[in-house]
Write a structure and sequence with these properties.
globular; 9 helices; SH3 type barrels; 321 residues; five-stranded mixed β-sheet; alpha+beta; 22% helix; Fumarylacetoacetate hydrolase, domain 2; 2 domains; twelve-stranded mixed β-sheet
Length: 321
């Protein structure tokens, strides 16, 4: 299942969407229509309880919400044929997509898990080592959608990109073992960790990773939350980032030096909640670690395409502040 948060032209508000081919269905309104057809006395109330209109509420409902969404998908063709009234179905390309989880409780960002990225840093003589298990929190206020603009802030001259895989937590847990880790993961997304390298460099002199990673618009992700049942092997997904059509990063999740389950285990010393996001760290090819990096840093007008096999492609344009 592919899930989105989209702007409903019918209700003029963000809504949970279920993707069906080139269409998106408003899950809550669609399920209300099905319950009404079944003769429920208060279909709106029951639909709100079982298939809410927001992604976080949906994830917190757990299995019952997914069962309701499956019923909507089963009837998707009838919805597309407009058999259930207005406000339910839209062409996917005609609506704005927000980040699938617009306001997660926390984003745990990890680094150093793709060893080629660490090696390229050494080769470029980056001042700071990139060992495994670096972590920091990414601010929810930095989140944008898969096609929104990345704002080039006036405080930096070294704006960089980092393509990553993001895991979305679907089940609450703490001290999770790697053997049971995927029981707590609902699905995956494309993530781009936008970074102001000059700010990062100054902060890391004090051992910090803060504003250089957390300025506004520095966390595009999406375009979908793809549930784990759709991905046969998350440890073998092609990854590619392009700037104006030129490939800058190319890799595969099979190059991770740790497993996704180990990442979940390692960071579950804090309580993980539905909607929380944990990233893998990036593959090689970032601008900062190339020869003549100033040629490769992002500039206003650049179009950044971030793609992971099976998860979709984001397209974000860089604009001046």
């Amino acid at each position: 299942m592919k899930l989105v948060t989209f702007h409903s032209p019918y209700l003029q508000s963000p809504r949970l969407g279920i993707v069906f081919g080139e269409y998106v269905l408003d899950g809550n309104i669609a399920y209300t229509a099905l319950l009404r057809e079944e003769g429920e006395e208060d279909p709106e109330i029951l639909a709100h309880a079982l298939l809410p209109s927001s992604m976080l509420s949906f994830l917190r409902r757990g299995r019952k919400a997914f069962d309701a969404a499956e019923k909507v998908l089963y009837k998707a063709r009838a919805f597309v044929n407009n058999e259930y009234g207005p406000g339910i179905v839209y062409k996917l390309g005609d609506v704005r997509l927000y980040a699938p989880v617009p306001r997660p409780g926390k984003i745990i960002h990890t680094a150093g898990n793709f060893r080629e990225h660490a090696k390229e840093a050494e080769k470029a003589k980056w001042e700071f080592p990139i060992p495994q298990w670096i972590s920091f929190l990414k601010s929810p206020s930095s989140i944008i959608g898969p096609y929104d603009n990345i704002v080039y802030p006036k405080y930096t001259k070294e704006l960089d990109y980092e393509l990553e895989l993001a895991m979305v937590i679907g089940k609450r847990g703490k001290y999770i073992t790697r053997e049971r880790a995927f029981e707590h993961v609902v699905g995956f997304m494309v993530f781009n960790d936008i970074t102001a390298r000059d700010i990062q460099r100054e902060e890391m002199k004090n051992g910090l990773l803060n504003f250089g990673k957390n300025l506004d618009t520095f966390a595009p992700f999406g375009p979908y939350l793809v549930t784990k049942d759709e991905i046969s092997n998350p440890h073998n997904l092609k990854m590619e980032l392009r700037i104006n059509g030129e490939v800058r990063q190319s890799g595969n999740t099979n190059r991770l030096s740790v497993t996704l389950q180990e990442i979940i285990e390692h960071y579950s010393w804090v309580m993980l909640e539905p909607g929380d996001i944990i990233t893998t760290g990036t593959i090689s090819g970032v601008a900062a670690f190339r020869e003549n990096p100033e040629k490769y840093y992002l500039k206003p007008g650049d179009v950044v395409e971030s793609e992971i096999e099976g998860l979709g492609t984001m397209r974000n344009t860089v604009v001046a502040e």
